[in-house]
């Protein structure tokens, strides 16, 4: 019961945080725009193709197939993959940080633990509140994507299931970053340091590891799917990739998301190819590891701590 009371209080306070509202607004807006952007790009190219068909027909020349003839219906949603990697994970860190530092900023830690409150109840309340808020945000994004796909393309029970699976994977991925934000919010005395460390980890996971392990395609961290290329292949680059790839959480997320949405994807043949179950297992391990860090942080949490320094 104490855990639920803490969770309710955390949720109420979170929705008064301006930084949280700013990043949340950006995430919702890009969710609204992502499907339209994907559809608009296809529509523009298709219009050019149809004009070319008329010109080639009048000239009596062969007509090439449409560039979108074999694209899956959910291809227009693929931009959400990179939006989750870039914006969704930052939103999760912000949520975790706000929940982890709230009581210390308010200077009420000693007052809270003067009541019959255990560290276990304290942690559970914060974990529940963060998980609930992130789940609600993911659910809203799912509803927006389903409506957008239904309006701009087509929707079926199979495609709906694919979208649900995609957002479930996204939830697991973002929740790990939320746990990181919470952990350092509880561990660090300075609010800026508590926010900076998980952001540095986010940069390493999102940019550094993919770039270090993907010199064959240096813009891969900004692409929702891996490129179809064998350019600049070499044993050294492939070896670096194979060593770092297990730790590239964002790459595993992008691979799983691409497969879930039915997107076409090929990688250089020299690379280690992981089955989807292995990539999913790595994401689950990532979630459990960050949860373990949260448990460790609250076990060493000083209940006599005063105000946190900004």
UniProtKB/TrEMBL annotation:
Keywords, ordered alphabetically: Membrane, Transmembrane, Transmembrane helix
Molecular-function GO terms, alphabetical: ABC-type transporter activity
This protein's record includes keyword tRNA processing: no
Cellular component annotations (GO), alphabetically ordered: plasma membrane
Transmembrane stretches, start-end: 20-39, 80-100, 127-152, 164-187, 194-217, 273-295
One Pfam match: ABC2_membrane_2
Name of the featured protein: ABC-2 family transporter protein
């Amino acid at each position: 019961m104490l855990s639920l009371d803490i969770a309710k209080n955390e949720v109420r306070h979170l929705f008064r945080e301006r930084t949280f509202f700013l990043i949340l607004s950006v995430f919702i807006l890009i969710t609204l725009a992502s499907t339209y952007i994907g559809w608009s790009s296809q529509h523009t190219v298709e219009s050019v193709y149809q004009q070319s068909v008329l010109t080639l027909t009048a000239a009596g020349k062969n007509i090439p197939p449409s560039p979108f003839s074999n694209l899956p219906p959910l291809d227009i949603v693929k931009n959400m993959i990179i939006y989750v990697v870039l914006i969704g994970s930052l939103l999760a860190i912000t949520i975790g940080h706000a929940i982890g530092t709230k009581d210390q900023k308010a200077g009420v830690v000693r007052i809270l633990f003067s009541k019959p409150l255990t560290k276990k109840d304290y942690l559970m309340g914060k974990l529940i509140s963060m998980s609930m808020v992130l789940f609600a945000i993911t659910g809203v994004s799912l509803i927006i994507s389903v409506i957008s796909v239904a309006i701009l393309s087509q929707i079926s029970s199979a495609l709906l299931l694919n979208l649900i699976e995609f957002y479930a994977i996204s939830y697991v991925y973002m929740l790990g970053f939320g746990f990181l934000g919470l952990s350092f919010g509880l561990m660090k005395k300075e609010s800026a340091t508590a926010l900076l460390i998980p952001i540095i980890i986010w940069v390493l996971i999102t940019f550094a590891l993919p770039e270090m392990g993907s010199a064959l395609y240096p813009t891969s961290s900004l692409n929702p799917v891996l490129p179809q290329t064998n350019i600049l292949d070499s044993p050294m680059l492939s070896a670096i990739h194979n060593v770092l790839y297990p730790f590239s959480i964002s790459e595993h997320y992008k691979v799983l998301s691409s497969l879930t949405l039915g997107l076409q994807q090929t990688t250089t043949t020299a690379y280690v190819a992981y089955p989807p179950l292995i990539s999913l297992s790595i994401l689950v391990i990532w979630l459990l590891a960050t949860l373990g860090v949260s448990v460790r942080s609250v076990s060493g949490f000083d209940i006599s701590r005063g105000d946190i320094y900004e």
